[in-house]
Amino acid sequence: MDLRKLRIPLVLIIVLTSVLIGTQIQRFYGPGSSSGARDKFEEILFYTRENYVKDIDDDKLIEAAISGMLEELDPHTVYIPASKMVHVEEEFRGDFDGIGVEFQIINDTITVVTPITGGPSEALGIQSGDKIIKVDGKSAIGFDNDKVRNQLRGKKGTKVKVTIFRPSNGKISDYEITRDKIPLNSVDVSVMLDDKTGYISISRFAEKTSSELRNALDKLTKEGMKQLVLDLRNNPGGYLNQAFEVADFFIDDNKKIVYTKGRKPEFDEEFFASKSYPYEKIPLVVLVNSGSASASEIVAGAIQDWDRGLVIGETSFGKGLVQRQYILDDGSAFRLTIAEYFTPSGRLIQRNYTNKKAYYQEHANDTISEGDNLNHDAEKFNGRKEYKTAAGRTVYGGGGITPDYIIRQEKLTNYTASLLRENAFSEYVINYYTAHKEISAQYKTLAEFNRNFRFNDAQVNDFVSFAASKGVEMNNTEFAKDKEYIAFRLKAHLARNIWKNDGWYTVLTPIDVQVRKAMESLLKAKEIAGL
Fold first, then answer.
1. Is 307 tagged catalytic?
2. DSSP state, residue 498
């Protein structure tokens, strides 16, 4: 069972805006470009603006032209409109200014899933399950996600008034919240799976990922960590420098971690391990799947090439292209592919993108058999180029990172997929926790809760009835197949409401087949690494 949502990375390309078309076209083409092509574009735009049957929006037309142009390039060279740049920058910067709540729109009402730890909402006592019904005195019923963000986010130090209905006591209260910096952590969780095994999940490679990881590793070391499962599943990547800094925690000496090659020599770079850490000598397993891309593949590829540990899961996405971001005058941007990256053995991870429509669909995972793949026999007859790891094992380039042990997640039934699609788990648990706040006092620690709490059959059946009221039609056969997972998922949502991500992962990792295989394989990882 997968613990995180798949996120496809945003990658972007070039902008032409404003009514000064000639100026923008000149800037776009640059020195030495074809004046004929530039003149043709200006001529077509002129006739269209002057004679089209309806009024046109120059900016929209030009952006559409840009999109058409970019179809001739790779899938990761993409234009980002100014309206989306704020969110892109926040995600990779690792923070935003706001009130600090995770929310969902439930029945047209903003519902607090959880206040963010250390944020201003938590400090004021805003709780999971609270419903925001007004913002600055005006009704917030019917807001969509974008409008919620626009209303509740703002510069640090500014204030916003929210009116909250608390279902647990039926009271309506007003809060004046002073906005603050809210962290967007890229290390989702760091917990101990047993008395010696640490588990760290990284969701993306943002500006502060390596420092967050160092803190997580230090924390787990104090808790007794002697070996580690590093989860990079569904991690779409991010900053190249963060990838090699993360790999440097585990790779010793001055070993090469990754290198890049472009058409222009100035884009050729090499990155080596440069610092010494105690984590270079602990058994290590890295988890990947088809949502692991780019920077995630740099880390997994370096670990695999140096035989530093084992890679387990499903074949990674296969993105081996490096982008550089260019910010334009109107606040829009594009990320232009400037180079390819290669693992230490020389593997290009980028897979074929000739058919762009199929590029983001499932790929090699469906054709490779599960099981032991230490010698990578699973890829032997696929036509990809062979490379050797430090210990002489064969690995292959041109199609992502194929694991040393291929383990697929169990497929959920259509019934359970419908429960997830309709957000039934989250909504039910928010209501349940609102009515059972005493659980927080009853279970003093997460460990105690995990040992002793379980949704019983009557409660699971109540959930099924709730889901039916949302239009999820009951299927007895499929329900019976997934009943245990459904009960665990409900428990994980409840644990998250109380203990946030620590609660979520602590409940779900024991039933995750890839995590279980990782724990079973740590002894082999130690042997492979020669520790």
1. no
2. H
205 shares its domain with 259: yes
> Is residue 301 assigned to a domain?
yes
Q: Which of 305, 307, 482, 512 is catalytic?
A: 305
Rounded Cα distance, 427 and 199, in Å: 28
Number of Cβ within a 10 Å radius of residue 493:
21
User: Taking a C-beta distance cutoff of 8 angstroms, is the pair 307, 376 a contact?
Assistant: no
C-alpha span between 220 and 217 (Å, rounded): 5
Angle at 438 between CA 434 and CA 444, to 5 degrees: 125
**Looking at 152, 183, 214, which one is the last position of a domain?**
183
Confidence of residue 131 (pLDDT cuts 50, 70, 90): very high
Together in a domain, 291 and 213? yes
- Catalytic, out of 256, 319, 491, 517: 319
Kind plus residue range of the DSSP H or E element containing 517: helix 513-520
And the tokens for 339? 């180079």
Is residue 429 one of the residues assigned to a domain? yes
Does residue 225 share a domain with residue 133? no
Catalytic site residue from 190, 294, 296, 332: 294
How many angstroms from the chain centroid is the CA of residue 66? 27
Identify the domain containing residue 103 by its residue range: 95-183
Tokens of 390: 């430090």
Tokens at 475, concatenated: 């299927």
Specify whether 310 is located in the same domain as 294: yes
Closest Cα to residue 211, out of 235, 179, 237, 245? Answer: 245
pLDDT per residue over 242-297, tens digit each? 999 999 999 999 999 999 999 999 999 999 999 999 999 999 999 999 899 999 99
CATH code of the domain containing 267? 3.90.226.10
Q: Is 305 one of the catalytic residues?
A: yes
Question: Phi then psi for 227, rounded to 5 degrees?
Answer: -155, 160
Evaluate whether residue 20 is within a structural domain.
no
SS3 381: coil
| Cβ neighbours around 21 below 10 Å, total | 17
pLDDT of residue 475: 95
Whether this prediction's pTM lies above 0.90 is answered by no
The CATH number linked to 106 is: 2.30.42.10
The reply to whether 319 belongs to the active site is yes
Final residue before a domain boundary, out of 410, 428, 458: 410
Q: How far is CA 427 from CA 92, 113, 303, in A?
A: 29, 9, 40
Sign of CA dihedral 467, 470, 472, 474: positive
